[in-house]
Design a protein that fits this description.
The protein is an all-alpha fold. The chain has two helices and no strands.
Length: 158
């Protein structure tokens, strides 16, 4: 057990030593390229640039979202107006269909009246023709009898 504890202690010591070497190496690299402050300053500037770029992207996205929201509101209002217009058109269409039906019925009634009138005219025309034919026959008979009477009177006078 003592050996296990010593192994853990030596592992921890090795780890601490490696970390210290890495930090020292980092410091040496940083100091070799300038100073640690210069390095950190450059790092801050890069981070500010990144943050600035991200902020401008966020602003662009927010502006696009606002534009899309406004477009959505306009389309929603437009849709409401179209629905109202459709309701008006539907009511108008129903009224026109009713008026058309009533007019259709009126035209059918007029056609029935005209047909009845035409049938009556045809019947009266046939009766008139029959009466004219009888009158023509009577006129011919009268004309014949008149001729006969003239001939008979002319024979009596002679």
């Amino acid at each position: 057990m003592k050996q296990l504890t010593e192994n853990k202690s030596s592992s921890a010591a090795v780890l601490i030593t490696m970390t210290a070497v890495a930090l020292i190496g980092f410091s040496v690299v940083a100091f070799n390229n300038g100073s640690l402050e210069s390095y950190l300053h450059k790092r801050k500037l890069k981070n500010k640039d990144r943050i600035g770029a991200i902020d401008s992207q966020i602003e662009v996205i927010l502006a696009e979202n606002e534009s899309l929201r406004q477009n959505m509101e306009l389309m929603s209002a437009s849709l409401d107006k179209m629905l109202t217009q459709n309701e008006k058109l539907l009511t108008s269409n129903k009224n026109m269909a009713l008026a058309l039906k009533e007019e259709h019925e009126r035209v059918l009634e007029l056609m029935n009246v005209i047909t009845t009138d035409n049938e009556e005219k045809l019947i009266l025309t046939r009766r008139l023709e029959e009466a004219n034919n009888k009158l023509t026959e009577y006129a011919a008979i009268i004309s014949e009898k008149t001729e006969m009477l003239k001939d008979a009177s002319a024979k009596e006078i002679a």
